[in-house]
Amino acid sequence: MNYTYYTDVLILSFCINIGLFFSFKFFYIYIIIPLYAAYQIISFIFKYFLSSPFGSAEPSKRMEKMEKKKNKVVYKTVY
């Protein structure tokens, strides 16, 4: 299990608590955590629920080049 989000929140909370010694406005930095969570949830919804299940209708230019390269006849020279 990856604990990077937990450690990030812990470090952010520690820095905010240090900043609260100087000004109460540091408390507003806590809004970053729910905003980031909302961003992750919305990106998940757009990625998996609103995308097309069959992909794009026309192939990309890169795929067309790969197909041409694969179908190209290769001549070998014999010495």
Automatic annotation (TrEMBL):
One of its GO terms (biological process) is vacuolar protein processing. InterPro entries: SND2/TMEM208. The keyword Disulfide bond does not apply. It comes from the Eukaryota. It is a multi-pass membrane protein. It is found in: Endoplasmic reticulum membrane. Pfam families: TMEM208_SND2. This is Uncharacterized protein. It comes from Plasmodium falciparum Vietnam Oak-Knoll.
